[in-house]
Specification:
This protein is α/β, with parallel strands linked by helices. It contains seven helices and nine strands; from the N terminus they run E-H-E-E-E-H-E-H-E-E-H-E-H-E-H-H.
């Protein structure tokens, strides 16, 4: 199973988006866009009709919004993987079918208070699970190690599913997430806000590689 470090981007203008993607596009295989509506979470991001600058990365959108369907309908052609918070849809099967019908990967995200049981019945239909290891909405939020219990539970339930951890992933926490069973690691401020994003990214890659030998 692939193991990958994924920088996440919060942007409120095209100029900011261009600048942040430029900081990571030459070394990251995947980029995550953190989409926030100011309602589902307090912060806002990507509330403009954005255009992705030239890049060769896989792009996933983490939809921290109350109306994921409208966003997907408008922006799906820009995205490869779509991650929806399970509590924002009344009909999870419908949104799975919709996203797969568009030829995209689909995953469900869980905030710290959302239990594994809300998602486990859909594991055979989805590609990915995202476990929030912070309370979502901002760069640099405090890492919540207790959230890794859900990672362990998901890995026991579905060893084939990509399990992504998002929030507070740094050189100090990445191995905790890895050892719990995660294989995809979102890192926002540690990489994107670093003075040297490539060096920060490569440091996380090195930690993973050294602990697999």
């Amino acid at each position: 199973m692939r193991k990958e470090i994924i920088p996440s981007i919060i942007a409120n203008s095209q100029e900011e988006l261009n600048e942040l993607i430029d900081r990571v596009k030459d070394f990251a295989k995947t980029i995550q866009l953190d989409v926030m509506d100011g309602q589902f979470v307090q912060n806002t991001s990507f509330q403009f009709d954005f255009t992705l600058p030239e890049h060769s990365c896989h792009v996933e959108a983490h939809l921290m919004i109350k109306d994921p369907i409208s966003w997907i309908q408008k922006h799906h052609n820009k995205i490869d993987t779509i991650l929806v918070h399970i509590e924002t849809t009344d009909n999870p099967s419908e949104i799975i079918d919709m996203v797969k019908g568009l030829g995209k990967r689909i995953g469900f995200a869980l905030n710290p208070k959302i239990p594994v049981g809300d998602v486990k019945h859909y594991l055979e239909k989805i590609d990915e699970v995202l476990v929030m290891t912070v309370n979502p909405g901002f760069y640099g939020s405090e890492f919540l190690p207790e959230a890794l219990d859900k990672v362990e539970e998901f890995r026991k339930l579905a060893n084939w599913v990509d399990i992504e951890v998002d929030g507070g992933i740094t050189d100090q926490t990445i191995m905790q997430a890895h050892n719990a069973g995660a294989n995809l690691f979102i890192s926002g401020s540690y990489i994107v806000k670093s003075d040297n994003p490539k060096k920060a990214y490569e440091n996380l890659v090195k930690i993973l590689e050294e602990n697999q030998q």
